[in-house]
Design brief:
The complex is a heterodimer of chains A (about 375) and B (about 290). Chain A is mainly alpha-helical and about 375 residues long. Chain A has 15 helices and six strands. In chain A, helix 4 (about 90-120) runs antiparallel to helix 5 (about 125-145), helix 4 packs antiparallel against helix 14 and helix 6 (about 165-190) runs antiparallel to helix 11 (about 255-275). Chain B is α+β, with helices and mostly antiparallel strands. Chain B has five helices and five strands. A five-stranded mixed beta sheet of chain B has the order 1-2-5-4-3. In chain B, strand 1 (about 120-125) and strand 2 (about 130-135) form a beta hairpin. Classes of the chains: A mainly alpha (about 375), B alpha+beta (about 290). Chains A and B meet through helix 1, helix 3, strand 4, strand 5 and strand 6 of A and strand 3, strand 4 and helix 4 of B.
């Protein structure tokens, strides 16, 4: 065997398939990746420092700007974390509405992932289909909280407003046609020969490596580990919902695609249960205008579309601002696995690997 | 550029380094360092509760004694007896807050971990349904290894590792917490070490490879170096960044115009200075309307 001269190239930070400002330093031997080093921090804004200088109510708007395609999940993590810190019990109706919106946001996030991932690999058509449904969901969010992406949907203690009139009807319209839409995506991709060739066996990461590297979410479930925080540590109204945790055992890009599609169907199921079983009652708990904490620390994990999203708060006595706020961002930890997935593989597979990890740089750099 | 009423503007002094920060540059916004070190702990909480109860009792006894004195005085002078004191009950707020106080550890995981670690475990307790174990700073690797490998613990995943700065801590400056998850048993555990400034704790990378980037982030944000880490470099900030942003003494304002607090600028003098400075720096700011 002879060896070519190794070449070092930069992928990103302005490359469109790096989903933001991710820079990957690659050493190539021909087209084979010898080593891979992700370089991050181009979008660092110091959200943790900012939130330590804002009150518990003000800090929530910064969570929208971390994972900006799944901002409602981020809002939920913040709100529930603070509620855990202060021991606030949220009314049941508020919990249901939170679950409903978070699942719709999971759909929106997975749709964006499907669109861009397929676009990276070369399937343009599904992008247009996925964005059509995502638009509808964003319009629903706008009718609820006035914003499409930076939602700040929840308040500490519940919700600011109940669902707007007509929301349930509009959501039901979406529900009635969404499963057909998922079938539509499947006709475009699942048995597509090019898609299968580009994804099957690509960017493998087995269960041991996933757990060792802290990888969570669909990537872990595609490796055969049925770990879902909605089931393992139920929060919001997930304890009352009937749903399954889809898993695959192949641990490759194609398996992750199938897991995410199955998750969309399960999210659809949860939304349907929320719409049908929505209890009556208030949507806001009684909380003081100014929250003053005691000496306390909490870590609250939720299942964001990308994996485990954890909020860590430390409160000081009488403090109106968190003494320390830390975000365990799923993309940040998942991206650590990128070298393991691509080293020894072809350069073109790096694009598939970045897409299949579903990273959002706003969350990685915070 | 210069208007007749514009005061003489000193030339804008360039910062000495690319990212140097200077506390004296923004005297109005000096950082107020925290006066307490809020490390949740069952022992501290118990001591506080006891101290509070003792203080309440002392206050009540003093009220009683004062009453006796006043009563005796009133009797001697032939006046009406004063009103007997009523013991104050804590006011109950009309809201739904139920603060989760630390409670004694009853979870078998914590008890068995304490049994395994012996005196290397400093404290165990539960708070808000979360299991907390504080271990000696030298013994963190053994504790992590026990948590991962021991048959009835099996915490396979290190979910998160982060640190907090406590400038007011007595014999420690930082706490480092490790959030462990047991996927097979669906449990969570928090390990904590308290370390002084300059102490380099052992890196958890050997036991949990996921600690790699988390420890780099801790180093980047708080300046804690981990021994045995494969790549102890900055991760989010540039390599030549000065200071550690998540330390409490790090300012939240930058150098330059933002040092001027326009809310306190009643005469509009500072505003004009800012305009001129901006002009010198080549920044186009719209002139405000004249009164």
């Amino acid at each position: 065997m002879f060896k070519n001269e190794e070449m070092e190239i930069n992928l990103g930070p302005q490359h469109p398939s790096t989903h933001g400002v991710l820079r990957v330093k690659l050493r190539l031997d021909g087209e084979t990746v010898v080593s891979c080093k992700p370089v991050i921090g181009y979008l660092h804004r110091g959200v943790e420092k900012i939130c330590e200088n804002k009150s518990y109510f003000q800090g929530q708007v910064w969570t929208d700007r971390m994972d900006y395609v799944a901002s409602i999940s981020n809002n939920l993590g913040w709100a529930e974390g603070v509620e855990k810190l202060f021991g606030i019990e949220v009314p049941r109706r508020a919990k249901y509405i939170r679950t409903l919106l978070t699942e719709q946001n999971r759909l929106a996030s997975h749709l964006l992932w499907l669109a861009t991932h397929a676009l990276d690999i070369g399937a343009m058509t599904v992008f247009l289909y996925a964005f059509r449904e995502r638009e509808y969901l964003l319009d629903l969010f706008e009718s609820f909280c006035g914003a499409r992406l930076t939602t700040t949907a929840f308040r500490i203690g519940g919700l600011r407003e109940d669902l707007p009139p007509g929301f349930i009807k509009q959501a039901q319209v979406f529900q009635d046609r969404f499963l057909d839409c998922v079938d539509e995506y499947e006709t475009l991709l699942t048995e597509n020969r090019i898609w299968k060739k580009r994804t099957i066996g690509v960017a493998r990461l087995n269960a041991e490596d996933c757990i060792a590297l802290g990888v969570t979410g669909p990537v872990l479930r595609a490796a055969g580990v049925p770990y879902d925080i909605r089931k393992a540590f139920p929060y919001a109204a997930y304890g009352e919902m009937a749903f399954e945790v889809p898993t695959r055992t192949e641990a490759d890009t194609y398996a992750r695609y199938l897991v995410r599609l199955a998750e969309m169907r399960q999210s659809h199921r949860i939304i349907q249960q929320c719409l049908e079983g929505l209890p009556e009652g208030p949507v806001m708990a009684k909380i003081p205008k100014i929250l003053k904490s005691e000496v306390n620390e909490v870590y609250h994990p939720i299942e964001a579309p990308k994996g485990e999203l954890g909020y860590y708060f430390v409160g000081e006595k009488g403090g109106t601002m968190p003494y320390r706020m830390h975000v365990r961002a799923p993309s940040f930890v998942n991206l650590q696995a990128l070298p393991k997935m691509v080293e020894g593989r072809l350069l073109a597979d790096v694009i598939a690997a970045i897409g299949t990890l579903d990273v959002v740089l706003g969350e990685i750099d915070r | 550029m210069s208007e007749p009423n514009t005061p003489e503007v000193p030339p804008a002094e360039a910062p000495s380094g690319p990212y140097r920060y200077d506390l004296a540059a923004s005297p109005q916004r000096q950082i107020v360092l925290p006066k307490t070190a809020p490390v949740p702990s069952l022992a501290t909480y118990k001591a506080e509760v006891l101290a509070q109860a003792a203080a309440d009792e002392a206050k009540w006894q003093k009220q009683l004694a004062d009453f006796e004195v006043a009563k005796a005085k009133a009797e001697a002078e032939g006046k009406d007896a004063p009103k007997a004191p009523v013991r104050a009950v804590p006011r109950k707020d009309d809201n739904d807050l139920k603060t989760p106080w630390p409670v004694e550890a009853v979870d078998p995981d914590l008890l068995s971990l304490q049994g395994l670690l012996g005196d290397r475990a400093e404290e165990i307790f539960q708070q808000a349904g979360e299991l907390v174990c504080q271990v000696k700073k030298e013994a963190i690797l053994e504790a992590l290894e026990l948590c991962r490998d021991e048959g009835d613990l099996r915490y396979e995943m290190l979910a998160d590792e982060c640190a907090t700065h406590y400038p007011a801590g007595k014999d420690f400056t930082f706490s480092v917490v490790y959030h462990l998850t047991s996927i097979s048993r669906q449990k969570r555990l928090r390990l904590r070490i308290l370390i002084p400034e300059g102490f380099a704790p052992a890196s958890a990378c050997e036991i949990y490879p996921s600690a790699n980037w988390m420890e780099r982030e801790i180093y980047d944000m708080l300046g804690i170096r981990f021994t045995g880490h494969p790549d102890m470099t900055r991760i989010l900030c540039p390599e030549d960044w000065e200071g550690y942003p998540l330390r409490k003494e790090y300012p939240t304002v930058g150098w330059g115009q933002r040092d001027i607090d326009f809310r306190e600028d009643r005469g509009g003098v500072l505003n004009r200075i800012a305009m001129t400075t901006a002009g010198q720096l080549g920044i186009n700011l719209k002139q405000p309307k004249a009164d």
